[in-house]
Amino acid sequence: MKVLNKEELLTAEGVLRKHFPKSLKVHGALCGINRDKPNALEVVVDTWPDFKVIIFRPDPKNKKALEVTYFSKDEEILRKMLTEENVINWSTYFMIGGFDFSHASMLKEVSSDMDVNNRSYMLGHVMYLPDTSHLLSPEVDSELESRISSLSLSHVDLVNKNWKFGGNKKYRNIADLISNFPSCCITDSQGQPLSWILVYDYYAMGLLYTLPEHRGKGYAKVLIRAMAKRLHAEGFPVYCFIEEENTASYKLFKSMGFTEDPSYRAGWFEFNF
Predict the structure, then answer these.
(1) What is the C-alpha separation between 241 and 121, in angstroms, rounded?
(2) Which residues of the chain have pLDDT under 50?
(3) Are 120 and 267 in contact (CB under 8 A)?
C-alpha cells in the first residue's frame, strides 16, 4: 500500500480518465484535490505506478470525514486492502459511496468478517455526457438568459430545506459546495432562486430542484445545459448519479443526450451505523 503525494495524484488523474464511467466519481474527487479544493481525504493505492486499486479514505487527522470512495480493477486486491492492510478504520461509522455495485456481495462478506453491520443507502444510475456536442436542449431566450446566475451563501437554507438528504447536519456541506464549486440557478425579478443545480465535491452534478410553483417551464433543462457546458469548458467530465427509483430525472437526463453503461450501477453502503 502506498499513500500518494501531490505529483503522483496528478498522474493518477490522467490514468483514471481511461476508465470512465466506472472511475468518474474517484476521478472527480481527485480533480478537487488537485485543484486545492477543501478536502479531508488521503489517497492510497495497492502499488505505484501500475495500480489496480485506488482508495480515497478519511484523512486520519480529520475526524469529521466519513465517506470512502474507491475504483478497483481487481476485486481480490481490493478485498485484501480492506481486510489486511488497515486501509479503513472499521471501528467507526463510515460510508462507501459510488462504488461498483458488482462488489456488493464482497463488501457484505468483508463487513461480516469484521463483525460490522452494513446496509444499503442508495443504488443509482451513472449518467454521463461523452461530449457537449451530444447535449440536446432548447435554446434559451435572452430574458431567461439574464436570470441565470450562481447561488450564494444566502441561499444555503433554501437549498438545504428542499434537498432530500438535507437537515441540520447537511447545512455546512451545502455551504461548502456553494463556496467552492460551481452552481447555477434561475432567479425571479428580485434575484431569488426559483430553480437550481449544484456540483458535489467530486464534480458530479446534483441537488437539482425547482420550486413546485415554477415547474413545467423547462428550467431544469436550462440549468443542466448551462452547467454541462461550464464543466466541459473547465475540463471536467459531465456526469451525475440518479437514484434507481427516480424515473423522472432519469428520463430528463436521457432526453438531453446523457448515456450510461447499462451493466453498471453505483452503490452507497453504510457501515457501523
Answers:
(1) 13
(2) none
(3) yes
Provide the pLDDT for residue 65. Answer: 64
Q: What is the pLDDT of residue 102?
A: 97
The DSSP string of 51-112 is: -SEEEEEE-TT-SS--EEEEEES-HHHHHHHHHHS--S-TTS-EEEEEEEGGGHHHHHHHHH
The per-residue pLDDT for range 136-172, each reduced to its tens digit, is 877 788 889 899 999 999 999 999 999 988 877 677 8
C-alpha span between 80 and 178 (Å, rounded): 38
Cβ-Cβ contacts under 8 Å for 226 (sequence gap 6 or more) = 140, 148, 184
Note whether 13 and 38 are within 8 A (CB). Answer: no
Q: How far is CA 209 from CA 189, 220, 226, in A?
A: 19, 7, 15
Radius of gyration of the chain (CA): 19
* Residues listed for the chain: 273
- Chain-centroid distance, C-alpha 178: 15
Cα–Cα distance measured from residue 87 to residue 232, given in angstroms and rounded to the nearest whole number: 33
Dig out the grid coordinates for 269 from the structure. Answer: 453502503
Per-residue model confidence as pLDDT tens digits over 189-224: 999 999 999 999 999 999 999 999 999 999 999 999
Whether this model's pTM surpasses 0.85:
yes
Q: How many CB atoms lie within 10 A of CB 38?
A: 11
